[in-house]
Amino acid sequence: MLKNRIIPCLDVKNGRVVKGINFVDLQDAGDPVEQAKIYSDGGADEICFLDITASNENRDTIYDVVEKTSKKCFVPLTVGGGVRSVEDINKLLNCGADKVSINTAAVQNPEVVVESSKKFGSQCIVVAIDAKKSGDKWEIFTHGGRNNTDIDAIEFAKKMEDSGAGELLVTSMDRDGTQVGYDIDLMYKISSKVNIPIIASGGVGNLDHLVDGIKLGNASALLAASIFHYGKHSVKEAKEYLDSKGIPVRI
Amino acid sequence: MNVTIVDYNSGNISSVINSFKEVAKDKVNIKVTSDLKRIKSSDKVVLPGQGSFKSCVDALININGLVDTLNEFAINNKKPLLGICVGLQMFADIGYEEIETKGLGWISGKVSKIDNQKGKFKLPHIGWNEINITKDSKIFKDIENKSHMYFVHSYEFVPEDKNVISATTDYSSNIVCSVEKENIFGTQFHPEKSDKIGLKIIDNFINL
Fold first, then answer.
1. Which of A198, B5, B60, B185 could lock onto B46 through a cystine, CB 3.0 to 4.6 A?
2. What is the CATH number of the domain that holds A20?
3. How confident is the model over A145-180, as pLDDT tens digits?
4. Closest to A31 (Cα-Cα) out of A12, A50, A47, A46
């Protein structure tokens, strides 16, 4: 039986982790490679890096991080943040990323998704959808949640599936960072609309939220940051809890 | 010993390279090339493959003499070859992804889309799934039955001779996820992304 995946996400800026594990025994708490290794040794099903480097001159730092990580971690590695073009995707894959997540560029120029999934295969193209509730629908935000596009998130999800995305990483902008739980309605609506797997993101504060993401949101995978980084729970604890609730996980 | 990973522009093979180098350390030479002479003189060959069946077959054909060299290596000389993902699928006679495309024809059978039971099962089949080992394959030495492996695919290999199947996985039906026919090995899952247990399979192949 296929297992539901737990994916810790690390925010990386200028090649350093800005939101990460707070373990005392870490040699270098800002080293993304070391943190990724801790997660993969601890049973993470995949690792995700979100590059939040703002300045263009430091953008190349992520390639070095990906290259080093892929030589030490042998679980799938997804990299997102600032991916604009087929060439950016090519570079990340060549450095050792297994999947690349595309956000703003997928909205501004959906051809990037069409072209890259044809060139590299759908299996490595993840489209990241940042959505915010507006009345009875959800709208897509870009540029790290700053710009509203007025595009309907659910329609957009379908369009991305048709364009060749292999997975959708769905983040509720309303919930992100709040620790009050995933936006279950949003997850369920998108998951019901598309036939590709969705990764739920944004808002996890406790282990029951993870359970809800799968049971109620119908997500295939769960992305979380804070709950793991600050030592609140380990990936192992999360998996054991999901298992105790009858959710299939790899232990 | 020389192990060659065939680099034929089949998409992203950096993870395959990294994992083989990790396992090989300094004991074994890992080469990444499409050079026909190098392939011929190798002790073992790894045939990766990402993207569609058609794009991989096209990429193989695009390199002049590569298909003949692989045939000579695996069929005439019977040297060990491991196909991963679409690399395994190409062993088939024919594939149906995008358009009907001829495969290498090393193991009779076809590659068709996984029956998702009218949307009941999401495709691609992405993530960790248990393998049911059905045959005592050499690459499964010290691998426990029901081990988890990492999958990502929408198409499955359906061989005619069921005796070649060494493992299956359960996703809408029993999908063939590993084959062994004499010197030819293949995994639908990605050992290079399946953590320590996947590296053990690579180690087993290297040590054949």
1. B5
2. 3.20.20.70
3. 888 999 999 999 999 999 999 999 999 999 988 889
4. A12
